[in-house]
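FYI - complex with fe (ii) ion, inputs then prediction.
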Amino acid sequence: MIKSGKTGVLLVNLGTPDSTATGDVRKYLREFLMDGRVIDIPSFPRWLLVNLIIAPFRSPKSAGEYRKLWTDRGSPLLFHTEDLKAKVEKVLDPTQFVVTMGMRYQSPSIESALEELMKAKVKKIIVLPLFPQYASATNGSVIDKVMEIVKRWQIIPEISFISNFIDHPLFLKAWEELGKEMMEKQEYDRFLFSYHGLPERQIRKGSVDNYCQLGACCNKYGPSNQFCYRAQCFQTTRLIAAKLGLPEDKVMTCFQSRLGKDPWIQPYTEDMIKKLASEGVKKVLVFSPAFVADCLETTVEVGQEYKEQFEEMGGEHWDLVPSLNSGDTWVACVKELVESRA
Ligand SMILES: C=CC1=C(C)c2cc3[nH]c(cc4nc(cc5[nH]c(cc1n2)c(C)c5CCC(=O)O)C(CCC(=O)O)=C4C)c(C)c3C=C
Ligand SMILES: [Fe+2]
Ligand SMILES: [Fe+2]
């Protein structure tokens, strides 16, 4: 009998600068923000905006933020993704799977990872964008990039894209375990779930039959809004909160990291901090479940900057639940996600 080939697994995260030098941060921001799924305006105005305004003015400031984040092993987003890949490789059957890792922007590239899989003569590729909630700017962009590369291949193997995994029992269990560990050390008055934001326009563009109106529609999650990023975030909060038995009136969902002047999805995390402080709330536990690895957005923005803001307004505890990184339950989740598609 002819032996069929292995299945290739491609884990993809966002990407991070090569170093904290302003030039490297500028290069990263240029590649990232020139993606038409991230800044979704026509290419010429996008080029002007990115190259003449955002990259020159933002790079020095962002480089300073990256310096607060950087470790001996470099950027946490990169080394946690490398660790995850190494651990997933260990738990998957090596006679059946070849595991690779790539970043949507900068390095290691998706192209180099796909070449590795092609050389391994895989019969099928499973692509797992490491973003729990689907957004055109993240998962959509990964799918776009993979297709752009494989369309040049003579033989295109079967490809399966995992587009969201917010309800996977092991994803929820991993957050439950991390949350419990924090809650055993400290009591909290509120539980804040802060997700990466998106321009409202991008939600509207993805809304089928105009279902999504960026309001109470996101309080329900089902076939009508299964790809609405905002609805997926609210659903993620509900599922994790239920696992931890958190009282509904103490749980809030909000969105961080607005870029530019256009309206982004609300409520904004910064407004939520002001509201909590004005209500006299003192102890807040913060989850960031749009990310599966510690990165600039979690460690610096939520863990340092928002913490300072809350404390300046009279708050006493602002504690960030660490991300999934390469923890055992999360590794088991990735194993199951992959095996279920093999
Ligand atoms: C849930 C995942 C993410 C979504 C959705 C997303 C959308 C999005 N992001 C920007 C602009 C920036 N994001 C930046 C950093 C960053 N973003 C994500 C994830 C999502 N982005 C991660 C994991 C990171 C951190 C990377 C790291 O190296 O640690 C940045 C760069 C940092 C900075 O200069 O502040 C920008 C800029 C837009 C415009 C957007 C949707 C349209
Ligand atoms: Fe981002
Ligand atoms: Fe919605």
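Residues 1 and 242 are 50 Å apart (CA to CA). The pocket of fe (ii) ion (ligand 3) is lined by residues 212, 214, 217-218, 225, 228, 230-231 (CB under 6 Å).
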